[in-house]
């Protein structure tokens, strides 16, 4: 491994303490692992963790560090894991629910903040979404203003917080509404009233997630000139490209759920515009950018402070604390269309099948909403009821209807993104990439232009098989044998379906019967003609054919 001594990014974290929110999430886990592995001299990682389901923060930290992605660190550098400290807290509570002692510790020690905690459910209740995504960010900014050593505050947003625009630049746009007034308005509503008012509150936004993330950006922007701030906007975050483990993923959100559903044979149709760009971004690309952005933000601030010190009338805050936005996307440099995801993904799902698939992986995207609904009823709803009926008859627990209902709900949440397209600017990302030294470009690479989507999707499918479905590679022979059986079942069912449908048409339509008789007559004459030509030609071939027959 190349030495990190020539790495300005890694060197920046030497002796500094970092506060991370959302560390138990998909991106948060990869961020913690990356800082421990690639910034070995970092002092302490403080993780704001909420006690959950009777499990306190300390035990949740133990569970986090026992995740597969920390196996290598646990083997090679176990001492590194002792740098991780859990801070009990809750984004939805006043002052984040942090004790006085822990608050004083963070105020005195923290130099870098990564704020990624959020509820990412698209259909989350508006009250909780505001409390978590918007007011949680406000509480974090309040804490940051008290930190004596703060050099960088990196807010993790989403590229789709401005999904009402077809072109999204790297800047904070005006909020859809005043965050403070909205919080006050929703605060006095009960949950039922808030849910009833949600469509009017959202306006032209598709869900509470993108809406509240846009409001959170406004709150961050309001702190410009007071704090060293940056915003990183990932698009659709997917499995790891290279690190911590190629293909690693820990949730069923977005394309991961689509791959698993399609690979298991239960997802046969999806409302999607094939020619539009699917802006996927591997999680390790996002994390490398986050780590580099904190370094860049602190470096700019340091230079500005030095310049202000040389000029008595200089305003360090004015020149150092502009909020820089980074769109972490793939579409600007290396776009992939949904049609490629459909076709290449299907190929790899068949090449690397899951265990015990319920049906042969197939189906297709539909550009017509109505046609997709018809196909969903025929290919999803009807088979699920049939399979549950068979399960009941055999004394087993029916579950396919429930699975299909959950799948349908998840797919509908994604339809806005599979039927729309955006052009994201990424100039700030490219400029930062160009500033990295060769060592940092290798260790903290967030370039996307050289990504081979075919190879990546193969890695993605293998990752979902291993880390989501927990299927061992040793089961591939059995899985492939089962897939071959399901292929014949699939073809047989197609033949039977077509035959029955045609028989039904013939029984109901006189025109169809006439057409069928005409086709049979033409076929019979064609066979008779070929037979006559063959018999006429055989005598002239006798001397040649005889030895063969004999």
TrEMBL record:
Q: Give UniProt keywords alphabetically.
A: Lipid biosynthesis, Lipid metabolism, Membrane, NADP, Oxidoreductase, Transmembrane, Transmembrane helix
What is this enzyme's EC?
A: 1.2.1.84
* A Pfam family the protein falls into: NAD_binding_4
**Reaction catalysed by this enzyme:** a long-chain fatty acyl-CoA + 2 NADPH + 2 H(+) = a long-chain primary fatty alcohol + 2 NADP(+) + CoA
Keyword Lipid biosynthesis (UniProt): yes
One GO biological process term: long-chain fatty-acyl-CoA metabolic process
GO MF entries: alcohol-forming long-chain fatty acyl-CoA reductase activity; alcohol-forming very long-chain fatty acyl-CoA reductase activity
Q: What does this protein do?
A: Catalyzes the reduction of fatty acyl-CoA to fatty alcohols.
Q: What is this protein called?
A: Fatty acyl-CoA reductase
Primary gene name: LOC117641538
